[in-house]
């Protein structure tokens, strides 16, 4: 189709049109949309990009325009940027040359007019050691002149007040005297003072006129200077963006990495090499736009399996098992059980289920500058920094640990699995699901007091109950034990190490999590990834999870390697992405998991695997042929109005709900946390300080008792002799780890209502 011819350019017009721009030796000339406006030539891939993504800009005021042949011409600004352009015809090229020359002349003229005729500084941009000093000296001189004029105005004002008062007194005296001999003297005095007042007033008027004239003369210049600074800032921002893209492009070219789109739907992608062209660095490659230079490439590629696996899955299961080396479970059975795994019908409950609360008081809108507190805490351990409740949420760390059980159904389904590999998929999905509640939760949970506990009894509703206890204060460590009627036990001990780095806060959970299944005796263990809170200084706080998790089945040797990709501004990939591969003890892949830690996870069964092309640093990436992905976990929607309730989930809203019969050390009984939930933050801060001081006093008393009990105490090695009430430390023979495990007695004490052994911590 023929495109409408653009009009002949005239001075001041915005000229637009298609040109072919040289990119690199692989792609050659590529069609781009160019816009000439206000002395700047910018280009875009399409017209639709004009509103949001500029691919490059060159300032014509300092640019050289050269014609190569009938259709080609070159624009360069001295080496930093060079555009090799080609028009569709000689007439079109001449239109562009005319428009560019007119725009360049206008840009040079506007730049020359930005300085007054009396300006001693050169019109070209000043060099750092020359023009900048002249401009600064001129501004200082102008400010001194204006200051002197203001002082003159002040002096004249004082004189006018003085002489005006004297004139008023003379007029009053003139009215009071009688006509007589001294009449002439009084009139003479009045005349003199009136003359002085007139002279002073004239001086005042002249000084005001000079000040106004000077201000008017410099006002236009200052406005131009301000506009110039704004334009320079915009150009600097554009230059920084171009430099970031160039660095990204060169880094990928050096590393030889080609990152695939998240769909992985085209098998031909596996055959493409990681070649990056050598062209204009400002023109990004189509397939690698906005990728972070430091972003790790995908470790594996998934492609659709051969259709024969789909056709034979229902009729020749044994053939598939022998060809692919899978376990002898049928493909259809595994897929259906992984996707749905319906619960068997349960008898109706005769006793009514307790109605839990669905709202808490809205969060008050109290402003507090985080940086004013955190600036003195850089590099320190966060747990040792006293923080006001303004940065907290009305839950303790023990309650946050209990939130891991929000998607307990995944473990219920895992307990019913016949295949350990299938069970591993559910355990891995449960591992990822525990992070879904953190995506908007920028508030810091309360640090538990030593000996503080939290019970979550959902036996009648969900078939499980759990108990947490703070077993250590420095370093802060919490032990958690949950047991279900469906045949699984979850236990974990988490120690938080957190560091404030100025721009962000890193929280590194130490310790391990273990899950045991009664029926199969499978024993799983894994660790948590690093949580990072960004924009501590300025901007809106946001949370990211990054790192790797290895979920290990110690009985069978099965393993699931999960990778939490860190957020990257330049990445085209899905934010908060998680990928994983389930392998057996021999390292053979059976399932691939993918999704996001804040949304959902899917799984695909691997039918065949092969080594693909070399990736970063010479490593080969594996290509997995998989069946169609199916959903294994999806995040529950947040309750209505969650943004006003600390973004709590439905489970989190119930965690601090008062309950009868809980231990006196339960987090629900903590007064500062309760006051904060009720919106009484000033009282909560005072109560928080009281509790922390009480805990410090208790710790000093325990240390003194430990010193007295020791036969030969060594100086500087006194330790806190606190013993956990409901947990005991053991060496796990299966995983080889040392952790606190539940030793029993809590639920029996609750049934009897006997809490005499509990310390007074609140």
UniProtKB/TrEMBL annotation:
<keyword id="KW-0472">Membrane</keyword>
<keyword id="KW-0597">Phosphoprotein</keyword>
<keyword id="KW-0813">Transport</keyword>
<dbReference type="GO" id="GO:0097038">
    <property type="term" value="C:perinuclear endoplasmic reticulum"/>
</dbReference>
<dbReference type="InterPro" id="IPR011993">
    <property type="entry name" value="PH-like_dom_sf"/>
</dbReference>
<keyword id="KW-0446">Lipid-binding</keyword>
<dbReference type="GO" id="GO:0006869">
    <property type="term" value="P:lipid transport"/>
</dbReference>
<dbReference type="InterPro" id="IPR000648">
    <property type="entry name" value="Oxysterol-bd"/>
</dbReference>
<dbReference type="InterPro" id="IPR001849">
    <property type="entry name" value="PH_domain"/>
</dbReference>
<feature type="region of interest" description="Disordered">
    <location>
        <begin position="265"/>
        <end position="289"/>
    </location>
</feature>
<feature type="region of interest" description="Disordered">
    <location>
        <begin position="302"/>
        <end position="328"/>
    </location>
</feature>
<dbReference type="GO" id="GO:0005829">
    <property type="term" value="C:cytosol"/>
</dbReference>
<keyword id="KW-0445">Lipid transport</keyword>
<keyword id="KW-0175">Coiled coil</keyword>
<dbReference type="InterPro" id="IPR018494">
    <property type="entry name" value="Oxysterol-bd_CS"/>
</dbReference>
<dbReference type="GO" id="GO:0005886">
    <property type="term" value="C:plasma membrane"/>
</dbReference>
<feature type="region of interest" description="Disordered">
    <location>
        <begin position="658"/>
        <end position="721"/>
    </location>
</feature>
<feature type="region of interest" description="Disordered">
    <location>
        <begin position="113"/>
        <end position="136"/>
    </location>
</feature>
<feature type="coiled-coil region">
    <location>
        <begin position="226"/>
        <end position="253"/>
    </location>
</feature>
<comment type="similarity">
    <text>Belongs to the OSBP family.</text>
</comment>
<feature type="compositionally biased region" description="Basic and acidic residues">
    <location>
        <begin position="666"/>
        <end position="707"/>
    </location>
</feature>
<protein>
    <recommendedName>
        <fullName>Oxysterol-binding protein</fullName>
    </recommendedName>
</protein>
<dbReference type="InterPro" id="IPR037239">
    <property type="entry name" value="OSBP_sf"/>
</dbReference>
<dbReference type="Pfam" id="PF00169">
    <property type="entry name" value="PH"/>
</dbReference>
<dbReference type="Pfam" id="PF01237">
    <property type="entry name" value="Oxysterol_BP"/>
</dbReference>
<dbReference type="GO" id="GO:0032934">
    <property type="term" value="F:sterol binding"/>
</dbReference>
<feature type="domain" description="PH">
    <location>
        <begin position="12"/>
        <end position="105"/>
    </location>
</feature>
């Amino acid at each position: 189709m023929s495109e409408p011819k653009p009009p002949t350019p005239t001075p001041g017009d915005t000229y637009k049109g298609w040109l072919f721009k040289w990119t690199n030796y692989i792609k050659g000339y590529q069609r781009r949309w160019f816009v000439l406006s206000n002395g700047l030539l910018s280009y875009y891939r399409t017209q639709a990009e004009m509103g949001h993504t500029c691919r490059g800009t060159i300032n014509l005021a300092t640019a050289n325009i050269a014609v190569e042949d009938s259709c080609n011409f070159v624009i360069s600004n001295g080496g930093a940027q060079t555009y090799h352009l080609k028009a569709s015809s000689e007439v079109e090229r001449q239109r562009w040359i005319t428009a560019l020359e007119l725009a360049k002349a206008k840009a040079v003229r506007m730049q020359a007019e930005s300085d007054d005729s009396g300006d001693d500084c050169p019109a070209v941009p000043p060099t750092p050691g020359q023009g900048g000093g002249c401009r600064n000296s001129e501004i200082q001189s102008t400010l001194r002149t204006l200051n002197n004029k203001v002082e003159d105005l002040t002096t004249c004002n004082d004189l006018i007040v003085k002489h005006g008062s004297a004139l008023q007194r003379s007029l009053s005296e003139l009215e009071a005297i009688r006509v007589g001999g001294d009449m002439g003297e009084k009139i003479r005095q009045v005349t003199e003072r009136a003359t002085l007042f007139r002279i002073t007033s004239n001086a005042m008027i002249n000084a005001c006129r000079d000040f106004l004239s000077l201000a008017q003369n410099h006002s236009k210049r200052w406005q131009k200077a301000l506009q110039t600074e704004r334009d320079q800032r915009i150009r600097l921002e554009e230059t920084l963006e171009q430099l970031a893209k160039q660095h990204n492009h060169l880094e990928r070219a050096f590393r030889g990495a080609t990152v695939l789109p998240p769909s992985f739907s085209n098998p031909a992608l596996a055959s493409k090499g990681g070649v990056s062209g050598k062209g204009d660095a400002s023109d990004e490659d189509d397939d690698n736009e906005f990728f972070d230079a430091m972003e790790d490439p995908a470790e594996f590629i998934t492609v659709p399996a051969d259709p024969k696996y789909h056709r034979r899955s229902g009729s020749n299961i044994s053939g598939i098992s022998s060809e692919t080396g899978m376990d002898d479970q049928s493909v259809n059975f595994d897929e259906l059980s992984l996707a749905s795994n319906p619960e068997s019908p349960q008898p109706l409950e005769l006793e009514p289920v307790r109605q839990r609360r669905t709202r808490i008081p809205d969060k008050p809108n109290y402003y507090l500058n985080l940086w004013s507190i955190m600036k003195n805490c850089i590099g320190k351990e966060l747990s040792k920094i006293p923080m006001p409740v303004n940065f907290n949420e009305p839950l303790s760390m023990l309650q946050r640990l209990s939130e891991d059980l929000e998607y307990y159904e995944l473990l219920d389904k895992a307990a019913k699995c016949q295949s350990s590999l299938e069970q591993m998929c559910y355990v891995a999905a449960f591992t990822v699901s525990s992070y879904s509640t953190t995506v908007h939760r920028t508030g810091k949970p309360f640090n538990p007091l030593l000996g503080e506990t939290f019970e979550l009894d959902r036996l009648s509703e969900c078939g499980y109950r759990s108990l947490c206890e703070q077993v250590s204060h420095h370093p802060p460590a919490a032990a958690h034990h949950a047991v279900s009627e469906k045949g699984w036990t979850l236990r974990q001990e988490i120690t938080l190490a957190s560091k404030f780095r100025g721009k962000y806060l890193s929280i590194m959970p130490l310790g391990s999590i273990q899950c045991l299944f009664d029926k199969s005796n499978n024993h799983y263990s894994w660790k948590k990834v690093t949580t990072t809170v960004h924009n501590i200084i300025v901007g809106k706080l946001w949370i990211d999870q990054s790192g790797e998790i290895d979920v290990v089945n110690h009985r069978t040797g099965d393993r699931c390697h999960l990778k939490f990709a860190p957020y990257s501004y330049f990445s085209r990939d899905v934010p908060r992405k998680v990928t994983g591969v389930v392998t057996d003890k021999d390292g053979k892949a059976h399932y691939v998991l993918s999704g996001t830690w804040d949304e959902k996870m899917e799984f695909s069964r691997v039918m065949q695997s092969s080594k693909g092309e070399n990736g970063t640093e010479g490593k080969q990436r594996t290509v997995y042929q998989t069946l169609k992905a199916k959903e294994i976990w999806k995040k529950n929607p947040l309750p209505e109005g969650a943004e006003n309730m600390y973004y709590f989930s439905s489970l989190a809203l119930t965690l601090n709900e008062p309950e009868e019969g809980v231990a006196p050390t339960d987090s629900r009984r903590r007064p500062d946390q309760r006051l904060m939930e009720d919106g009484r933050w000033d009282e909560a801060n005072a109560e928080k300080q009281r509790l922390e001081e009480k805990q410090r006093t208790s710790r000093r008393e325990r240390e003194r008792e430990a010193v007295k009990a020791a036969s030969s105490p060594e100086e500087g090695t006194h330790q806190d002799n606190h013993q956990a009430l409901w947990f005991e430390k053991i060496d796990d023979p299966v995983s080889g780890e040392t952790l606190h495990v539940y030793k029993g007695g809590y639920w029996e004490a609750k049934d009897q209502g006997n809490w005499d052994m509990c310390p007074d911590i609140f």
